[in-house]
Amino acid sequence: MEVPIGFLQKLWSFISFLPFFVLLLLLGLIKALIIGPVSSAIILTGNSAVIIGLWPAHFIWTYYCLARTKRIGLVLKTLALILFPLPLLLWPIAGIVGSLFGGIAYGFFTPLMATFEAVGESVTSKMLPLLN
After folding, report:
1. Residue 70 placed within a domain
2. What is the number of domains present in the chain?
3. End-to-end CA distance of the chain
4. Residue 21: what pLDDT?
5. Which residues form the signal peptide (predicted)?
6. Which domain holds residue 54?
7. Angstrom distance (rounded) from CA 87 to CA 35
């Protein structure tokens, strides 16, 4: 079996690129560890404030709409009015937990991806975006 033409050149190109990739990955991880908790806290605080602040209005409006609708019968309406507190009480908790996970993901992956985008082919000054 013969070695295909260009195989050694491609292998050398791959091996010589690995240290560059590993250093960029480490830089991205360091940036993510510094920026991640701050952005996660900002996202969690903002989203939680909106969720908790608007929850009473949503609770009241849901019950008002359910009580006033004529599309469902009396039995289903009564059952819904009795059983709706459970999902309405769990919804803010699910929203806050989702905001926490979303904030962590955003705070971790955005700096990591920005590090690799900064050294892309279309960027002329490759060192300056890495430090931002």
Report:
1. yes
2. 1
3. 50
4. 87
5. none
6. 34-131
7. 34
Does residue 83 fall inside a structural domain? yes
Cα 124 from Cα 118, distance rounded (Å):
9
Q: Rounded to whole angstroms, how far apart are CA atoms 88 and 97?
A: 15
> What is the Cα–Cα distance from 22 to 117, expressed in whole angstroms?
15
Using the Cα atoms of residue 35, residue 38, residue 39 and residue 41 in order, give the sign of their dihedral.
Answer: positive
Whether 27 is covered by a domain: the verdict is: no
- Transcribe 32-81 into DSSP letters: HHHHHHHHHHHHHHHHHHHHHHHHHHHHHHHHHHHHH-SSS-HHHHHHHH
* Cα 131 from Cα 72, distance rounded (Å): 60
Cα separation, 90 vs 76, in Å, equals 21
In a domain, 12, yes or no: no
- How do the pLDDT tens digits run along the chain, 132 residues long? 455 567 788 888 788 888 888 998 899 999 999 999 999 999 999 999 999 999 999 999 999 999 999 999 899 999 999 999 999 999 999 999 999 999 999 999 999 898 888 777 676 665 665 565
